[in-house]
Amino acid sequence: MLTAVGVEGVVVRAEEEFLLQVAAADAGYAARHLLQYEAENRPPPPAPPPPRVYGYAWVGCAAYVVVLLGVAFVLSNGLVRLDAFDLGELDAGRVQAGQWWRAWTALTLHLDGPHLAANLTAGVWFGYLAARQMGSGTAWLLIVTGAAAANLLEGLLGPAEHRAVGASTAVFSALGAMSAYSWRERFALPQRWARRWGPLVAGVILLGWTGSAGEGTDVVAHLAGFAMGALLGATAALPRPKQWLDHVPQWLTGAAALASLAIAWGCALAS
Predict the structure, then answer these.
(1) Minimal CA–CA distance to 66: which of 123, 142, 133?
(2) Are 236 and 242 in contact (CB under 8 A)?
């Protein structure tokens, strides 16, 4: 290598090692090239282990479909109070008056068939990917909690006349959770910054692409859902919370997500 850059040298044997000798005038120049050569030919770090993939990711998605279709069927057929839709929508004025449960119940209500179909499709897709990363129960607990927290913030901080319904906040909570979870998991891996931040950047791009289009889109709710989902997803990927969640059965965290919706609807129908 030194010959290629015009430095003449000779290797001599010492007592227990070999020495490379060059002219004193070339010593600094040769040392710089040797260090550069070593840096350029350093072996790449070992490939990171493949991420853990959970089975039964479809279970949470099936529960999501059953809940949304079940609520739509019950309300459209008048099987509960006729004013149940009014009782469950996100009404900022009533949330500010103490009706916190609307943050959960509003997630299960939809204005019409296309509205419901769009949220079913997107929710199943993002929910499935999140469940493969975190487990079906854990993923849906984070999704529902993040979406409800986003609704609650919007209800408490928004104008009193603001009203909203739909599971789109949960859709973007799922996107935020899985993006931030992947991003935080890569922190300890020997990767370039672009690969480490890639999942979060991709999530933000998807948020901008799918969360701001269409007339009547509640952009604030989508942003809040993504942010709250990302916060919960990043927290769940931290070593200690992740270790704790690994010891909690997936059926239990999934049941907690369903229970939060059931409790909220119980409060709404009892009010």
Answers:
(1) 123
(2) yes
Q: Is 172 exposed, middle or buried (0-12, 13-18, 19+ CB in 10 A)?
A: buried
Structure tokens at 244: 């704790």
From 109, 108, 145, 129, select the one nearest 229 (Cα to Cα): 145
Q: Are 232 and 257 in contact (CB under 8 A)?
A: no
Counting every residue written for the chain, the total comes to 271
d(CA 3, CA 45): 30
Summarize pLDDT for 75-89 with one digit per residue, the tens: 988 898 889 999 999
The continuous run of DSSP H or E covering 163 comes out as strand 163-164
Partners of 22 in beta bridges: 9
Q: Write out the H or E segment, with its range, that includes residue 65.
A: helix 57-76
- Work out the angle at residue 226's Cα, subtended by the Cα atoms of residues 87 and 199, and round it to the nearest 5 degrees: 155
Q: Are 234 and 156 in contact (CB under 8 A)?
A: no
**CA separation for the pair 182, 237 (Å, rounded):** 8
**What DSSP string describes 87-126?**
HHSEEHHHHHTT-TTHHHHGGG--SSHHHHHHHHHHHHHH
> For residue 175, which amino acid is it?
L
Which amino acid is present at 251? W
**Distance, CA of 10 to CA of 4 (rounded, Å):** 14
pLDDT value of residue 214: 63
Band of the pLDDT at 16, cuts 50, 70, 90? confident
Rounded to whole angstroms, the Cα distance separating 54 from 49 reads 15
Residue 23's CB: how many other CB atoms inside 10 A? 11
